[in-house]
Amino acid sequence: MIYVDVKGNLGNQLFIYAFARNLQEKTGQKICLNTTYLSKYFPDYTFSLDDYKLNENVYIESKKNLPFFMNIYMLPIKVIIRLLKKNPIINKKFSIRLFNFLAKRGYFLWLQETYINFKIRPHKNYYVTGFWQSPKYFDYFSEELKKELTPQKEVLAYNRNFFDLIRHKETICVTIRRGDYISNAKIKNSYYLCGPDFFYTGVKRLRDKYPDAIVICFSDDIEWVKTNLDFHCETYYESGNDPVWEKLRLMSACKHFVLSNSSFSWWAAYLSSRNGHVIAPSKWYVDNRQVDIYREGWEYIEV
């Protein structure tokens, strides 16, 4: 069995699921999506993967603890990881060695934000914790994965006309992440990069190439967007009240994208089947740490 620590909101949960499916593809093991720590440490977060057509050999469990040294919410483990991340030179070499040491024994602990190419060794059980934000872990079976990441429910009745408009027009999906990127000072200092000028520049670049394109805005603060952003073109707004699986379906139905540095935004572009143009911020974190979340062919705006 592959025991997986599920954490974060839907965007992060999708990365976690995709990494676990990568292990499943290589080992043939069943997956147990463990929500124990999600409900214990993040009561405001919602488990959302059960809204999708997941692989038939995936199970959901709410009472399975990871081995103690894989519980990154324990203070000693948290301190070690924090010290590693504050020393990037040490972090790169040491964390990869530690990762490989654990992986050989069936434990997958996310210590490095860049992709690590590791060998799978046979074990009775595997344990996984981390965010695994790199498509290099799952691009090789992306078509199968995208089928599984289809919502179980049909498009909601009140969104059918909106969905059809998005699919049949030259649309630009603009995702404006606010929420805790604005309200939480600690998170803001790490993640807030994309202000109004970023979105204006992104939309202008795309409309210079696709003059007939219309803008579709998505945000966790859609009323702020309506009041404060004007793209000077035909613009539509998602209601802000849709469940996350419906919102992500509407986003991924667009053709072109101006992405915030958000995993939820990232998945909208990844799941799109329309081969459009993607614009993203030049870095994913304020501290400019190295990541592997970017994809070939994207265009970047300096932030």
TrEMBL record:
Domain of life, per lineage: Bacteria
Full protein name: Alpha-1,2-fucosyltransferase
Keyword annotations: Glycosyltransferase, Transferase
Alphabetical list of Pfam families matching this protein: Glyco_transf_11
